[in-house]
Sequence to fold (402 residues):
Amino acid sequence: MAESWVHALLICALAPCVLTLFSRTGSEPSQRNISITLNPGHSDPPPPGGDLLYVRSVGPNDSLHFLFCSQGAPTLLLVHSNSTEATVKVNWDDFLNRSSSGTVNVVPEGSVVYSGALIFSKVWEYDDVNDTADPGSDLFPPYELQDMTWSRLNLSTLSAQLCGVYKDTNGTICVQLSVFEDWGRSELWPRLLHNPDSAQLAFRLDGLSSRSSQSRFFLELTAVGRAPLEMVRTIRSIDDEFTPSIFTVSQWLFNSSGPGSNLTPGTSPGFVQWKPVAYRKPAATLEVATPLRHWSPQHQDPLPTATASKLIFGFYSNNTPTMGINISFGLSGEPFYDATNYLSWTLLVGVGDPPLDSFSVLVWSILAVGLGTPLLLLLVGGVWLCVRKLSAPAPSSYEPIN
Ligand SMILES: *[C@@H]1O[C@H](CO)[C@@H](O)[C@H](O)[C@H]1NC(C)=O
Ligand SMILES: *[C@@H]1O[C@H](CO)[C@@H](O)[C@H](O)[C@H]1NC(C)=O
Ligand SMILES: *[C@@H]1O[C@H](CO)[C@@H](O)[C@H](O)[C@H]1NC(C)=O
Ligand SMILES: *[C@@H]1O[C@H](CO)[C@@H](O)[C@H](O)[C@H]1NC(C)=O
Ligand SMILES: *[C@@H]1O[C@H](CO)[C@@H](O)[C@H](O)[C@H]1NC(C)=O
Fold:
């Protein structure tokens, strides 16, 4: 009897560990080596009109090439090559003059298995007079991010920040890129989980003078690539441990079942992922969290985007499939922008399937206690009944015949 007790206890105690192990198997650590070059192949002084940052990230069998550029609207281009030798070549004169496309390349060209780009195109502001948070009317002229004056890229170890000012307005719009050699999670909320196949972008609207006292903002993002990102999927979870009060994650994915796809259905060559939350102060806490809303992605004319970003024209020319999406900050009843004059939002861009939070040890332990306790009680009850039955004088089936 003592033995089954020990077994029962062991099973209950070990269950969380075993389950955690199982839930991790999908995310085998795969490391990459990163090297970063600013304006690769360009001699000093830096090129006029903006920087081109090149992050080369080499894994055991493949390489990723991130290009982050401020020649026009801020653009992140991600190229996945199945060669560890691949590298980026830029023909600087033609690239800067836009005299032809194909001025930015990953060579050997035949090794490219996927490429996709994300452009921060426009920041829209609208006067939300009736606090409906519906940006249908009362739009102000947008901030065209291609017309901003961008600072030089401010580099630190594995990140780079770009800030811009718009004509004669106050405040800055910043985009910060972070890349990773390993799995992890940034310290700042929303604490997105990242893997070595992804890069994180933080977008900030800092100190803009709003044009009405009830202004709200939304962002127009554009994606360019031969495999266009066509749908946004929302994944729900019961776990908000890392992003308090947020139980969903949104994934903007290539529609792998669509026409022209030669990929295995269910696998994604590339993705953009975010949690539907922005923060109204630099020190992100629950009190300054504000929800996010997105509209469905729309097909766009490729030409304006190729005009807005030199990197898009240089790599893709002006006829590659282009999709746009609007993402708005704040819902009805939430404070307006001028309450704090600040908004920050974080997203993840990468190749392959997006990393997903598995249940944490804490949640498994809670589940184990919650489910394990009743089981344990049943077990104890069962054992007790058995013991009672065995120790009670067995009612003999052979009643002695008197
Ligand atoms: C790399 O390729 C080798 C041999 O083709 C294979 O055994 C290994 O699993 C691959 N590693 C990764 C991380 O894909
Ligand atoms: C790399 O990708 C190219 C293009 O998809 C393909 O033709 C080639 O066979 C691949 N090479 C390896 C080693 O997988
Ligand atoms: C705001 O509400 C007023 C009164 O209901 C209405 O007349 C007006 O059209 C609304 N404005 C917007 C932008 O919806
Ligand atoms: C910029 O800020 C200053 C000081 O707060 C203010 O006087 C000025 O009107 C602002 N400019 C714009 C274009 O909003
Ligand atoms: C975003 O919203 C603006 C303003 O309503 C609209 O002009 C634009 O077409 C929208 N973009 C997308 C991709 O839906």
Q: What stands out?
A: The helical segments are 2-24, 92-97, 302-308, 310-316, 361-391. Residues 129-130, 137-138 surround 2-acetamido-2-deoxy-beta-D-glucopyranose (ligand 3) (CB under 6 Å).
